[in-house]
Amino acid sequence: MERGKMAELESLETAAEHERILREIESTDTACIGPTLRSVYDGEEHGRFMEKLEARIRNHDREIEKMCNFHYQGFVDSITELLKVRGEAQKLKHQVTDTNRKLQSEGKELVVAMEELKQCRLQQRNISATVDKLTLCLPVLEMYSKLREQMTSKRHYPALKTLEHLEHTYLPQVSHYRFCKIMVDNIPKLREEIKDVSMSDLKDFLESIRKHSDKIGETAMKQAQQQRNLDNIVSQHPRIGGGKKYKKDVCASSDLEVKNTSPMSEQDSGILDVEDEDDDEEVPGAQDLVDFSPVYRCLHIYSVLGARETFENYYRKQRRKQARLVLQPPSNMHETLDGYRKYFNQIVGFFVVEDHILHTTQGLVNRAYIDELWEMALSKTIAALRTHSSYCSDPNLVLDLKNLIVLFADTLQGYGFPVNQLFDMLLEIRDQYSETLLKKWSGVFRNILDSDNYSPIPVANEELYKKIIGQFPFQDPELEKQPFPKKFPFSEFVPKVYNQIKEFIYACLKFSEDLHLSSTEVDDMIRKSTNLLLTRMLSNCLQTVIKKRNTGLTELVQIIINTTHLEKSCKFLEEFITNITNVLPETVHTTKLYGTTTFKDARHAAEEEIYTNLNQKIDQFLQLADYDWMATEPGSKASDYLVDLIAFLRSTFAVFTHLPGDVDVHSTMSGKVAQTACMSSCKHLSTSLMQLLLEAEVRQLTLGALQQFNLDVEECEQFARSGPVPGFQGDTLQLAFIDLRQLLDLFIQWDWSTYLADYGQPTCKYLRVNPTTALILLEKMKDTSRKNNVFAQFRKNERDKQKLIDTVAKQLRSLINSHHL
Fold first, then answer.
1. Which of 91, 277, 603, 723 is the 20 to 30 Å CA partner of 204?
2. For the Exocyst complex component EXOC6/Sec15 N-terminal domain, which residue ranges apply (predicted)?
3. DSSP assignment string, 418-467
């Protein structure tokens, strides 16, 4: 039962499932029936399903048959209509065929035209595409053409910019074209070409500025000179000069700014052509002579190419080499000022360029690099100047060199370079300048002294008188009152020497200008140099003139007068120095002039030379003396040589009346110099006569010879009493012959008893007679008595005289021995 029920249930389920499948088959799209049929075959009841399917088909066929039977008449009618339509369709077909044939026949031309239109449309599309592609390519080609044009015209920095735009903007848009690939491959080569060409331009620029450094420096130094002149004008007229200076500075800065903001300038030359301008015209700025665009372009190019450091190192290395060349002075630089000027111009030109590069580029050179170069330049320049200036013997050249060094220092100081060492070196050159001045003025003084006539200056009229007074500070009321013509007491070398001393002071002052020295330092320098001039050069020149063999007594007298007046003028030289330096002589540490000492020494030397010359003249006359020492009787008058000697002395001392009696007051009376000369001459004459009497060659003499000698001494005493030089008191001048007089009186009067009795007492009559001298003379008379009086021993008085001589000689020896003990 249960199995039967179960089987019945399964059959019911299977039937329901088959029914469902049939409905799906009826309602489902044919394309999707596969899964449904698969479910039938997956089961085991497909046979029963087929039976059901066939039953369902038979049902549908019966329904269709019923429907067809129901609509059959309509179907027959439809077929009839269809047959009619077929006929009409045949007719229509023939018409359509005819129409088509006609249309085909008529449309052949249209088809051809359409084909042509098609081709035109295709060409138009191709042209449009080509235009579009060319629109993309043309900017690339234009940029490339522009690039080549810029490189051909050497506009390298714009060419590099064009290359950058071409590479990064235009070429990526058309990178698939073959020509673009060629361009891309050429870009590194173009960069290298730009790099090489710009470096070549830089080398040309460096070579150009090396050759034209002197022109750049010359312009810079002219500009500095103009600025100094302008500053001087401004200091005198500040309101007038201030506006001009401000305007000039503004214009210069504006020009410089415009120039420096155009690194893409198309000028590749390092030096612009600038014609020489007159000194009165405005000198162009140093930077206006130089076109720095090659440096700017090369710097920008290397910066863009990422090689800025390489460029900086190369530039600095090359400029260091150029600096060493510039700082090497020519071997003959010391011969002319132009040699120094060219040397300085090159150095200034070098550092003007470097200073401009420092301020117009960022980092190409830095302050440390400039300072290093300047330290090297400063040391080498100072060493060169020390070496070459030492060869210079012309003070004018040394002065010009100093002015050039000051201008050189001021120029570089204006660009911010420290120049204190240059001014310190100028102080060294100042000493050399002083030496060259001293040598030059030594020659000037020698010429003045050699060409002087050593005669008082005659003046015939007031004009000449004032001219001399204007040249030399001389005041003499007595001389002013005298009528013309009249004479100054000094010769021409006095105003000439005085004016040359002032010229020397002016020359010293010229060197101290612009050295930034204080008034005290300038005053000290001038005074020390002037002292050297007076104590060394002028003193030596005076001594040389005084010591000359051909300098006569008249010249020596005039030299004494001249040096006296020059000594008086020293205070005016002091005032002159004070006026030009504005330093009072009372200021602490102020050096005093040694002129007074110099002229005193010269005057003393002249005095000594006068004494020496007089003594030499006396010696020359004494060489003419020809005494007969064996004469029995004296002559009736003094010897001829002595008469001539006295006449010479009288005429000579007459010249001495022109000597000043005092330093401050001139007098017609002879002064101390004349008195000293006269006394010296008399003493020398007395001493020479004494030596003549006692010389060893005179072995014997007679009383007659002594008496003749006494006549000569009396002539000398007469000369002394006559007062050849006023000013001696009493018999002062006669005392020069006192030794001779007492000696001769002792022998002529034969007053030995008095001499021997009073010897050694202050009141002795023969106090000036030396026992040794008396003994020598007595021995000569003793020998004469023995030899010439052979028979004297037979005469009593002769024998007594010989005994007396022997006795006196013995006593004299005793006095001499006691004196030595």
1. 277
2. 52-221
3. --HHHHHHHHHHHHHHHHHHHHHHHHHHHHHHHH---SPPEE-SHHHHHH
d(CA 526, CA 504): 9
pTM of model > 0.70: no
CB contact set of 87 (below 8 Å; sequence gap of 6+): none
The span from the CA of 567 to the CA of 660, in Å, is: 13
Q: Which two tokens stand for residue 70?
A: 């129901």
Number of H helices, E strands in the chain: 28, 2
Q: How far apart are CA 263 and CA 257, in angstroms?
A: 11
At 742 the pLDDT is 87
Spatial separation of the C-alpha atoms in residues 436 and 429, rounded to whole Å: 10
Please, what is the Cα angle at 445 between 563 and 583, to 5 degrees? 70
Helix (H, G, I), strand (E, B) or coil at 487: strand
Give tens-digit pLDDT for 674-710: 788 888 888 888 899 888 888 878 888 888 888 888 9
- Closest by CA position to 332, among listed 264, 253, 391: 391
pLDDT tens sequence across 196-249: 877 887 888 888 888 878 888 888 888 888 887 777 676 555 433 333 333 334
- 426 touches 516 (CB < 8 A): no
Contact 446, 437 (CB under 8 A): no
Amino acid at 469: I
Q: Checking DSSP bridges between strand 486-487 and strand 458-459, what pairing results, if any?
A: antiparallel
Q: How far apart are CA 96 and CA 340, in angstroms?
A: 119
Distance CA 373, CA 395 (A): 32
- Integer angstrom CA distances of residue 211 from 132, 216, 347, 506: 56, 10, 12, 40
Q: Helices 595-622 & 553-568, crossing angle to 10 degrees?
A: 170
How far apart CA 354 and CA 370 sit, in angstroms, is 7
Instruction: Return the amino acid letter for 211.
Output: K
Q: Rounded distance, CA 241 to CA 231, Å?
A: 8
| The amino acid at 130 | T
Residue 169 is classified by DSSP as: I
Residue with tokens 């100094």: 228
In the chain the first and final C-alpha atoms are separated, in Å, by 207
Q: 237: which 2 tokens?
A: 């007229």
Closest CA to 776 of 653, 664, 694: 694
| Residues facing residue 290 across a β-bridge | 271
Given a contact cutoff of 8 angstroms between Cβ atoms, the answer to whether 283 and 223 are in contact is yes
Residue with token string 């000493």: 431
Q: Are 553 and 613 in contact (CB under 8 A)?
A: yes
The number of residues in the chain equals: 821
Q: Describe the chain by its helix, strand, coil percentages, rounded to 5.
A: 75, 0, 20
